[in-house]
Design brief:
Blueprint lengths: L1 H22 L27 H12 L2 E6 L2 E6 L2 H10 L18 H4 L8 H13 L3 H6 L1 H21 L9 H18 L9 H18 L3 H4 L11 H28 L8 H13 L4
Antiparallel strand pairs: 1-2
Helix pairs in contact: 7-8, 9-11
């Protein structure tokens, strides 16, 4: 009898309650206008196969600012350059944070990412360090030889692969070598060493892990549209991201430990970005004089 009551509540009462909560009028009367959506799904099915075109057409009916619901997530669409300029000039602090997809919440990765971290002291400090140590002309000019070396290595990898495939019709995955070269550029800027080698097992594993992580991060996820379903992880995206991100962090931790040991042994000749971060972390832990 008790189980019958539970089943009845879940199949009948819960959907009715959710429908009432969805269709009730919002308390905020100042919300922008927008089309009415379906319960639970909102306006998702009204956007069609070309959402950008559909949203542009909404401007003629609702004006330059349109209110939509993507599942249970409220979304405001700005369809005017003048309105966008006003928002980012006068209300930038209210809209400065990015929406974080559930996949990027794995192991709280987004909190340490410059591109995803919430606006605050940490984000401002990291932006200042990157601006001063990585994105200035002097630093960029100093790394020309590093980028050239990585590109030359990439061309050698492609040439070697092409020579080994003579007589076969299999194509060369140029994107893979570009991806590996990009990681080696980042590795030399961060750790003063190549991160991957296409012929090594570690390099191949690292490439496959990062590739899967990018695919998982860009894959449509129902948990992003219906946040109350995150706990169930219906598509298994969060579970897979936890697995792959854990492996990537283990590899990155190994790189960092090797770097610190080389630095202590006096083998490190040039200063890289990891040295900057370690110096900054050390300066925070030093007692005030």
């Amino acid at each position: 009898m008790e189980w019958n009551f539970v089943i009845f509540s879940c199949t009948i009462l819960l959907p009715i309650l959710m429908f009432i909560l969805y269709t009730r009028k919002p308390n905020h009367k100042s919300l922008p206008p927008g089309p009415h959506g379906l319960p639970l799904f909102g306006n998702i099915f009204q956007l069609g196969t070309s959402p950008h075109k559909t949203m542009a057409e909404l401007k003629h009916k609702y004006g330059p600012t349109v209110w939509l619901k993507m599942g249970s997530v409220n979304s405001m669409v700005i369809l005017s350059a003048d309105i966008a300029n006003e928002f980012f000039k006068n209300h930038d602090l209210s809209f400065i944070d990015r929406s974080v997809f559930d996949a990027n919440r794995s192991k709280n990765y987004y909190k340490g990412s410059l591109g995803l971290a919430p606006y605050g002291v940490y984000w401002r400090v990291m932006r200042r360090i990157c601006t001063v140590e990585m994105f200035v002309n002097k630093r960029i000019n100093e790394t020309v030889s590093i980028r050239r070396k990585c590109v030359d290595n990439m061309l050698l990898w492609i040439e070697k692969e092409a020579n080994s495939m003579q007589g076969r019709r299999n194509g060369i995955q140029v994107a893979r070598y570009i991806f590996l070269a990009s990681f080696n550029i980042i590795g030399n800027l961060m750790f003063s060493k190549d991160l991957v080698d296409p012929e090594s097992k570690e390099g191949s594993d690292f490439f496959n892990i990062m590739k899967r992580m990018m695919e998982l991060g860009s894959q449509p996820n129902i948990s992003d549209l219906l946040p109350w379903l995150r706990w169930f992880d219906l598509q298994g995206i969060r579970r897979k991201m936890d697995r792959d991100l854990g492996k990537a962090l283990d590899i990155a931790t190994t790189f960092m430990k090797e770097h610190i040991e080389e630095h202590k042994a006096g083998k490190q000749k040039s200063k890289d970005f990891l040295d900057v971060l370690l110096e900054f972390e050390g300066s925070k832990n030093e007692p005030a004089k």
